[in-house]
Design brief:
heterodimer, A: mainly beta, five-stranded antiparallel beta sheet, 5 helices, B: mainly alpha, 8 helices, elongated, disordered N terminus
Amino acid sequence: MIVDVTRELERYGEYADAIASPITSDELSWRRYEGAPVPPSPRRTFPSWIVAVGAAISVFVLIGGFAWLIGGVGSEVVDEPMPVTTTTPPSLPDDMQPVAINALPESSAPAPIDVTSGVAVADGTLWAATEAGIVRWDLEDRTSDVFTSTDGVPVAEGGLGQVAVAPDGTVWAYTWTQDVIMFDGTRWIEPDGYDQVDIVNPRCVFGEACLNPITAMAIGRDGLLSLAVGPETLLQFDGADWTVLPVSDIETHGDSASAWAADIAVASDGTLWIASWEELLRYNGTSWDRFTAADGLPSGAISSVAVAPNGDVWVGATDSFEGESADGVARFDGDAWTAFDASDGLYANSVSAVDVGPDGTVWAVHSATGAPATSRERATGGISRFDGATWSTTAIADVGVGFGRGGAGIDDSGTLWISSRWGVVGFDGVEAFVLRVDGNARPEVDVPHTVIEGGTDILATTIAKPVEPAATCPAGSSPDSAGPLDQARRPRGSAPWLRAAMDLQSGRIVAVADASGEAETWTFDVCTNTWSLMKPTGRSPSTGVRTLVYDTDSDVVVSIGQSVAAYDVETDTWTQRGAAPSSNDSFRGDAVYDPVSGLIVVRLLESSEMWAFDVDDDTWTQIRQGAMSPPGDPAMSTGPSFSHQHFAYDAATDRIVLYLSDGRHGPGVWDGAGTEMTWTYDLRAGEWTVEDTVTPELTTGYFSLGSMAYDDAARRTVITGDGVVAAYDAALHDWEIVWQSPAESNAYGRGTGVHHRIGAAVVYDPINDRIVVMGGQARMLDEDPFWVPMDDVWAFDVGTGTWTELLPSSSP
Amino acid sequence: MEGRLVASREQTRVAFTEFFSGSEPILRHALVATCGPEVGREAAADAFEYAWSHWDRVGSMEHPIGYLYRVGRSAARNYRRPAVVVDPPGESSLPWIEPGLESGLRRLSDRQRTAVVLRHSFGYTYAEISQVMGVSIPTVQKHIERGLTKLRRRLEVA
């Protein structure tokens, strides 16, 4: 059949244009709606409810038009007023129709950012402690900045706590694990003298393992910082000195978790009011007083406290640890307590936050109840407002469980800003807003400090920032021409087991020998095909290097073996990291970089465990693998077991390809008598699939001692070993032999291409769209011994199955 | 102060609008070529949304379209479905295309497919393709030559 390819391609252009119509500026305005449905393309249909919501939104778009675009420029967040929904939850009375802040369909919702425990407002700026870091919003133009570990925020150190703004504008924050930081205008730093403070739990016999957490913070008008540490300690900083005050002077104050502080408020005279769940404490600088339900406080746990401009103290209560039911809010006028509950007009009796505005308006925030606190389920929360005489209420839809549990703040205009698992919710008395860091723009990674048994789904919830384009070869270079033969290179006989990774930003392959002792660091320029011996500062990997992997968003090559280190080509510096998890003294694992989460994913051969590594924070998180996972080493497994593995990330299917072999090779078994399996791992679902049922058997020979890499141009995973190159298409579940050593050189390591060779490093070179194979040992039957170390470098084109010699072998 | 802010916003709006008008076709076409019509269009819209939100940085780049092409590709990976080159046949109003073209394009590398489709389906120049893909013009030529060779071989062209 004769086909005019260019004519067919022209038709394809018409076909594609008919489906992918031009994007309009109005459509961009639509998309700015926190995941509001995108106007359907000609071939799409949406459920009727989405159409209804879309119609409601379109009214706004038509009114606002493109001019609305102006206000959003430069912002990472969505902060627009949301339309009022027309439905009422059946459980709510008719006069409590919710104000909807989030009417988006589930499928288009960005990853939520959990505002864990801190919201503070000052001078037109809103600060929030979130699971992604500390976010700063300019409330005038709604632009935002996210401060993460690279800015000095210890995101991974156990979770951020509250954030507070001092009268001089200094912003403070802390973590559950006793990190205290302040913002110097550029970076977050530890305040002077804090490293000398001794606040280790005196009752703890396990040292730092039972560190008392910091649970609450407040700053007075005089700038005095107060931190509640565990049940027994109040820590204060006056700008020069730190003071540790024992709360345990109060004999009746407990020492259990129920006695930890939940909130602190500071009166204008400096008096501290500390809500400690089971009671309310007052500290005037010299003595302590204690208030309980017997004094008129709500019987539940005191969750929040605020001081009004007139000096009145307000508290809110939730259900207590002991099961006491919350009964609303209470006001202390200096003499007696007055309680308010639902019978007085509150939205609900359980109060997650209470605050008082500059005009004396009292706000109480009510979270949905009946669902686990960690749930991200949508739920309706409520707000109660007290004008000094009566309470009025508003229901807010889709704020999720935990609404207000991270506190609230009030800006100069009187708008209440409330923490939620779906962002920071603003309510001006009429409309609700939401400020949210877009999941796709989420710039950093949050790694839990504590490993959860059985693994987490961190790869499904973590999104890396987009990466700048990689290096390209300079004009005039000839990357397909062989480099100079007489150039310096690693001695042939030295550590033939080479590990390598492509550094995308520099356009160089970093190679380290898998040897004992301190390894040499070499780089190979893929544009000139020349080696360079590096003279790095810092300590190079000193023990066996098992795998090298390039971390794209951190722009470092990470060496993982018996030690872990990161290498920056630009500065020629190695930086040591902590040890990798291993069930054995000798690390045996392989690693890939996951460009979606920005994490390095490691599989341990001995234990079959999977771990995610964040090189910036030097943290390891075990990954969930689902009900079925590949077997591991014979010594550690029952049933089928494998002693060799190769690992690659397949970008086309967003899966990891795992090749397993039992390592049987050599005469009599090299032609397929050994056992091998192919598995793929869905990083987002956290599940493995065994591919053998759909994969033709692959005669692997020495693949167990070969190497594997993903070819982004061919969209296939390539494995080399013993005179064979095979490629795996994860979309088609298909292995294909793409090259075999010609018969005339079948027994030798000579000829065009990499013939019978083991231990070579295989790297994908995206700058020139080719697989690069370097080093290793060739099987030359006319030599004695017949395994000969090699120092040549070759390029392989998977599409054409052809080799190009990038650097000939030197003379032995 | 407020006046300066409004003026600054207006300048930003004008700059972004001008950029959007000029670059929308090629960015959409490039991502359609790489990821298929539906996914590519979504990815392009995501990329423009990203540009809008980060205009202070994107607008100062030397080659913002090339950067946004990579942003779009990255976004497409999050759609939880494999990128496809040609969607299944739909309504009869769509132009007819050779059935073998789908599998032929799918078997090309991303760069080969992108270069071939941008050149022969949408008619862009080598220089324009070079800019959006972030590669040199000779590399574009190489991708197109190799891609067409593979396509012809697969479609059994004599």
